[in-house]
Specification:
This protein is of the alpha/beta class. It has one domain: 3-Layer(aba) Sandwich (Glutaredoxin). 41% of the residues lie in helices and 19% in strands. The protein contains five helices and seven strands; from the N terminus they run αβββαβαβαββα. A five-stranded mixed sheet has the order 5-4-3-6-7. Strands 1-2 form a two-stranded antiparallel ribbon. A hairpin with a 5-residue loop joins strand 6 and strand 7. Helix 2 crosses helix 5. The longest helix is centred in the first third of the chain and has 25 residues.
Length: 178
């Protein structure tokens, strides 16, 4: 009797484990996952203000280039992990000038941001979103979260979680062929 009960329990558990494994193996990596968003397909919400380095910033000034709008925080571990990918992406596009990165920082100080970029690299504009208006306009649910804006100003992709330089370049290539 005990063996029959064990078999009745073991078989469904084994089937569930196999299904979960198949699901996890066949999903795209988190860094490559596209998310649904009401802003995708529309004009990028405005980002206008003063960067943490004191320079004025307006997202519209980057029209004509691909722009990665990255929402992050200096104390967010996944943000720290993704940062080298953003640095690599930015550097690989420096020569052509066809793409740029702008970061929007959550609930952080200019001193923390300066120290973070000093330690981890990157020299793109960082805008403080202390009011949360920019995050709300983009529909941000957590950090890191990034949006890819086409040269036309349309948002073409939303990433939940970290991004990779190769993943960003792949999406740019896909939309450039369209």
């Amino acid at each position: 009797m005990t063996r029959r009960v064990a078999a009745w329990v073991a078989v469904p558990v084994a089937v569930a484990a196999v299904l979960l494994t198949v699901l996890l193996v066949t999903r795209d990596p988190a860094a490559e996952r596209r998310a649904r968003s009401p802003v995708v397909g529309g004009l990028a919400p405005a980002i206008v203000g003063t960067a943490t380095d004191g320079e004025p910033f307006d997202l519209d000034d980057l029209r004509g280039r691909w722009v990665v709008v990255n929402f992050f925080s200096t104390f967010c571990v996944p943000c720290i992990v993704e940062h080298p990918e953003l640095v690599a992406f930015s550097r690989s596009h420096d020569a052509t000038g066809n793409a740029a990165v702008v970061s929007v920082v959550f609930d952080d100080t200019a001193a923390n941001v300066a120290a973070f970029f000093e330690e981890n690299g990157g020299d793109w504009p960082v805008i403080a979103d202390n009011s949360g208006r920019t995050a709300v306009a983009y529909g941000v649910t957590g950090v890191p979260e990034s949006y890819l804006v086409a040269p036309s100003g349309l948002v073409v992709w939303k990433y939940l979680g970290g991004v990779t330089a190769a993943g960003l370049d792949s999406v740019i290539a896909q939309f450039s062929r369209s």
